């Protein structure tokens, strides 16, 4: 019968704890992916769609919602409330063309990093 020293026993305990930790991480990862897939199929809806949303303050938004084929509603969303502001016809909506430039231009990380590194 082989008896392990205190250091050998501690090393085996460390290996065991690391294996359990990696196992728990793997189970968590796959369960999260499964729940996300389940919620995606449950939340899929063809009749309601958020067309556009704009943030007014830290917890207030104004959204345009399409209900059905051609009914559009403007709503205000607060922390604990949703207030209907009115109905919009499809003629009043401005369509975003694919070729139209976005008002927000993407920021290149390298240019920002270069800008801050030049200040120092």
From TrEMBL:
Q: Which GO terms describe its cellular component?
A: membrane
GO aspect biological process, one term? bacterial-type flagellum organization
What start and end residues bound the annotated signal peptide? none
UniProt keywords, alphabetically: Cell membrane, Cell projection, Cilium, Flagellum, Membrane, Transmembrane, Transmembrane helix
- Record-linked Pfam families: FliO
Compartments where found: Cell membrane
List all membrane-crossing ranges.
Answer: 12-32
Q: Does the keyword Cell membrane apply?
A: yes
Does the record's keyword annotation contain DNA damage?
A: no
Q: What is its main location?
A: membrane
> Which InterPro entries does the annotation name?
Flagellar_biosynth_FliO (IPR022781)
Name of the molecule in the record? Flagellar protein FliO/FliZ
| Organism of this sequence | Pseudobutyrivibrio xylanivorans DSM 14809
């Amino acid at each position: 019968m082989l008896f392990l020293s205190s250091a050998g026993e501690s090393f085996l305990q460390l290996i065991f704890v690391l294996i359990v930790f990696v196992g728990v991480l793997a189970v968590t990862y796959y369960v999260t992916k499964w729940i996300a897939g389940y919620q995606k199929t449950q939340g899929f809806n063809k009749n309601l769609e958020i067309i556009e949303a704009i943030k007014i303050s830290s917890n207030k938004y104004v959204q345009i919602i399409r209900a059905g084929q051609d009914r559009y509603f403007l709503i205000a969303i607060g922390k604990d409330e949703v207030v209907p502001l009115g109905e919009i016809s499809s003629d009043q909506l401005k369509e975003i063309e694919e070729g139209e430039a976005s008002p927000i231009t993407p920021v290149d990380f390298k240019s920002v990093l270069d800008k801050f590194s030049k200040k120092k």
